[in-house]
Amino acid sequence: MNLQQIGQQAKDASYELAITDTTTKNAALEAIAIELEANVAEIVEANNKDIEAGKAAGLTDALLDRLLLNEERLAGVIADLRSVIGLSDPVGEEFDGKVLENGLKLCKRRVPVGVLGVIYEARPNVTIDIAALSLKTGNASILRGGKETINSNLVLVKLIQAALKKVGLPTTSVQYIENTDRALVGELLKLDKYVDMIIPRGNSGLQKFCKENSTIPVIIGGIGICHLFAEKTVNVEKALAIVENAKVQRPSVCNALDTLLVDADIAETFLPKLAAHLLPLGVTLVAEEKAKAILGDDAQLAQEGDFSREWLSLNLGVKVVADLSEALAHIREHSSEHSDGILTNDFTVANKFINAVNSAAVYVNTSTRFTDGSQFGLGAEVAVSTQKLHARGPMGLPELTTYKWIGIGDNLIRS
Q1: Helix axes 71-85, 125-136, angle to 10 degrees
Q2: Cβ(244)–Cβ(281) under 8 Å?
Q3: What are 272-319's pLDDT values in tens digits?
Q4: Which residues lie below 8 Å from residue 381, measured CB to CB, with a gap of 6+?
Q5: Is the peptide bond before 390 cis (omega within 30 degrees of 0)?
């Protein structure tokens, strides 16, 4: 089947989904959860094939971690899927209502975007997240995962489509481009006759390619060069726990910490404690000259470009800054505008930081690891947008809708 056919089928399915009631959509999500639970062994077996192929191909540990879909992670994915059932359906919500002097009743009503094209790499859980959020909001989806996830994704989509058939919805509501030829990504980006939004989830190269080659609106995001600034009034012990969580809990994801900025007033005492806390956990400190002078052999000297890297590993950039102004300047130069935060006991400084940092999520005394759809109570997410239009941060249900104006009159004509 060629992409034109896939696109036409997705568009046709989107028309039916747009008028599907919430009860039926929730039934579809529950049916998918049941299918996944009944076929855990098949899913894990397919994922094992992808893992082994990935190891043979020399994938990094970070990519292999993203690729892994074992029983524990699958249970979490299913739990997130079921949580979407309990969320309010935004489709049909009316807002900004008013009555004009001529009697015309106006409001905006939320409607599905239509057809979503999602391009992603080594994360098979994304397949379920996208299917769930798309279906809940009445959107059809065309999925194109990377070749490293092909076995896992083919099984997952087969199960999703089986569930859709059982509840009477078009199986073409969720389609997968099975051919791993990269040329098809370029074709998908030109499918504007059928696809309404492109969401790339992958490295900066993929994001750039989609942005430059798509004739369809593209949501950019998912690249996390994340910072925390330890300001001079910080509680050191509490700060160390936050830094550990942000860096160590799961270093291979986009909301993991990449750079720690330390106020010069506390650097002499803070940095040795940082090393004592993180080095036993396997963290490598990559420090600029001032921080390296304090840390000595506990850190390696940062090279050009290190502070503009998304590490996706247990490396942590460390830099001493003179004050809030220098911290902000560094963040503006190097941040991907994903997730950045301040550790402080001075809430006047914290508020200045919040107002000055132009990121999708800004934190005070909190780990960057919270920038996640399920953690934000969205159930799951399609992506984390770092742009300003039309969505920012984790994209849940409302971000997968647009609106139309509804005008109701009593046989009104314009004078």
Answers
A1: 10
A2: yes
A3: 999 999 999 999 999 999 999 999 999 999 999 999 999 999 999 999
A4: 129, 133, 372, 373, 374, 394, 395, 396
A5: yes
Task: For 197-213, give the DSSP string.
Answer: EEEEES-HHHHHHHHHH
Q: Convert 371-404 to b/e letters by CB count within 10 Å (16 or more is b).
A: bbbbeeebbbbbbbbbeeeebbbbbbbebbbeee
Closest residue by Cα to residue 201 from 263, 265, 116? 116
The three-class DSSP label of residue 21 is coil
Q: Would you list the DSSP string of 79-140?
A: HHHHHHHTSPP-TT-EEEEEE-TTS-EEEEEEEE--EEEEEE-S-THHHHHHHHHHHHTT-E
The C-alpha atoms of residue 26 and residue 295 are separated, in whole angstroms, by 54
Phi–psi pair at 340, nearest 5 degrees: -140, 150
93-118 burial code (b ≥16 CB/10 A, e <16): eeeeeeeeeeeeeebebbbbbbbbbb
Quick one: which of 14, 79, 17, 78 has its CA closest to 43? Answer: 78
Q: Is 0.90 surpassed by the pTM of this model?
A: no
Q: At what angle do helices 22-38 and 150-166 cross, to 10 degrees?
A: 130
Residue 241: how many other CB atoms lie within 10 Å: 13
Q: Provide the CB-side half-sphere exposure for 247 (13 A, CA).
A: 26
Taking the C-alpha atoms of residue 287 and residue 328, their distance in angstroms, rounded to an integer, is 18
Which H/E stretch holds residue 342?
strand 339-343
Which tokens in the block code for residue 308?
């503009």
The label of the residue with tokens 């399920």 reads: 374
